[in-house]
Design a protein that fits this description.
Elements lengths: L1 H49 L3 H6 L3 H79 L9 H19 L2 E3 L12 E7 L9 E6 L2 E3 L2 E4 L1 E6 L1
Parallel strand pairs: 2-6
Antiparallel strand pairs: 1-4, 3-6, 4-5
Helix pairs in contact: 3-4
Length: 227
């Protein structure tokens, strides 16, 4: 019986030791697991730290820095396009200004040419009318004094005055000659005469009346000048 009790005690001790060993193993395993978790945490920290290290920023940069660089490049391209557009607009404005100036010069030149053609045509018509005026004056000069009240003579005189009025309205004026100093721009001297009334170089007689059109001579006065 004693031997059996001893064997039972030994068996119980062995089982107790076995259970103690298993507990120790669990504690060791927990300690090992904690160590491994700490190692993983440290490695994770290192991994997180790698994203913000200066050497990594120099190599590629953070996502925020990359976005900033992209935005800067995009803005630079937009600025370059804006400058190109401004230059093109300036060139077009200069071209339009030049064309407007050329058109203005063309219009002024055309207006001057048109006016010159009108003046030439008007002078040509006036030159053809002036002999008619001369004939009226010659005819009226031959009318005797007792016939000047005749209705026919009065009618011709009215027509003559009306013709002179219309010529004056369009800018035709007679050149004053007798008693004026000879002016080669207005007078055409055809002879020299002696005169007690006028000094030398003064027009003493008008042989044919001269006319101007808008301050331009249409026909010079034909005169006799005191010698």
């Amino acid at each position: 019986m004693a031997e059996q009790e001893n064997e039972v005690l030994k068996k119980e001790q062995s089982e107790a030791l076995a259970e103690d060993g298993e507990d120790v193993g669990l504690e060791d395993e927990n300690e090992t697991g904690g160590t491994e978790a700490q190692s993983d945490a440290e490695e994770g920290g290192k991994a997180d730290g790698e994203d913000i290290r200066p050497e990594d920023e120099a190599a590629g940069g953070t996502p925020e820095s990359r976005e900033a660089r992209k935005a800067a490049k995009k803005q630079a391209k937009q600025d370059k396009k804006a400058e190109a557009f401004k230059e093109q607009i300036a060139q077009l404005e200069d071209k339009v200004k030049r064309q407007l100036a050329e058109f203005e010069n063309f219009r002024n030149r055309t207006e001057k040419e048109k006016q010159a053609m009108f003046e030439t045509g008007a002078k040509s018509v006036i030159e053809k009318i002036l002999p008619v005026v001369d004939n009226f004056e010659r005819g009226m000069a031959t009318v005797p004094e007792d016939k000047k009240e005749d209705p026919f003579v009065d009618g011709m005189n009215r027509i003559y005055r009306q013709l002179l009025t219309e010529l004056e309205n369009i800018g035709v004026k007679p050149i004053e000659a007798v008693g004026r100093e000879f002016d080669p721009n207005l007078h055409n001297a055809v002879m020299q005469v002696e005169s007690e009334e006028y000094e030398s170089g003064v027009v003493a007689q008008e042989l044919q009346k001269g006319y101007t059109y808008r301050d331009t001579v249409v026909r010079h006065s034909m005169v006799a000048v005191v010698s």
